[in-house]
Amino acid sequence: MALKDLPADAQPREKLLARGPGALSDAELLALLLRTGMKGKGVLQLAAELLSEPGTDAQTGLPTGGFGGLRGLLNASLDDLKRIKGLGGPAKRAELVAVLELSRRALAEQLREREGFSTPDAVKHYLQLHLAQRQHEVFAVIFLDSQNRLLAMEEMFRGTLTQTSVYPREVVLRALHHHAAAVVLAHNHPSGTVQPSRADEALTQALKAALALVDVRVLDHVIVAPGQALSMAEKGLI
To answer: What is the pLDDT of residues 72-100, one digit of tens each?
Structure first.
């Protein structure tokens, strides 16, 4: 059903104006952003599909369904959105990706303004937004001030991560550049598992030793994958 065919008090725009955005469901808010659906699929149905749980086609092995809620949608890339029928036009995909990117940046600004990285959960949530959906392995470093406020996050290395592909000297130089008092190390596992390997543990210890020489603490090393994250500090591995 098209939005215009709904009763006036059930149309998302009128409902928002009359009762405020908190009165709308996630799907209704998303439908306002999308504005239109497609033939045979109204915009509310399209929004609900985007938020539905992901699946896999048994015959092709290709992903089906949505992104598993707002957090999954925030992790979606431009290529991910291409598989959703009804988002075929580049303009609509670009608008949605722009809003998602603004949401990520708003979260980053919020974390810069307070001690947002004082808990592992805050760190894991932030890193999932940035790294969980990457198709290749990325090593990133979050640089923090003495009050655990965000100074910067940099993606420093790509590819299979080992002690030989991640250079401690480069991490130390960037920490000094930002005048960081502490760092959180992070990388993603595109395979979907977040269990640290022996190479992950060895790399963590090598970076911890290098950064200690310039009085920069390693607070954590977080491994992320779609829908999950692991804090090595919580596991007693730091």
So the answer is: 787 777 778 888 877 767 888 888 888 88
Burial 145-174, CB ≥16 within 10 A → b, else e: beebbbbebeebbeeebeeeebebeebbeb
**DSSP count for the chain of H helices, then E strands:** 9, 7
| C-beta of residue 185 within 8 angstroms of C-beta of residue 150 | no
Structural domains in the chain, sorted by start: 9-107 (no CATH), 115-231 (3.40.140.10)
pLDDT in tens, 121-179: 878 888 887 887 777 889 999 999 998 888 999 999 887 655 447 889 999 999 999 99
CA separation, residue 89 to residues 92, 97, 133, 175 (Å)? 6, 13, 22, 42
Distance CA 229, CA 147 (A): 24
| Overall pTM surpassing 0.70 (yes/no) | no
Nearest to 76 by CA among 187, 227, 193: 227
Tokens of 19: 């009762």
User: By mean pLDDT, which of 8-12, 113-117, 164-168, 188-192 is the weakest?
Assistant: 113-117
User: Is 66 in contact with 51 (CB distance < 8 Å)?
Assistant: yes
Question: With contact defined as beta carbons under 8 Å apart, do 139 and 159 qualify?
Answer: no
Least Cα distance to 231 among 216, 219, 217 occurs for 219
SS3 for 1?
Answer: coil
Residues 49, 33: Cα–Cα separation, whole Å: 14
Integer Cα distance of 19 and 69 in angstroms = 23
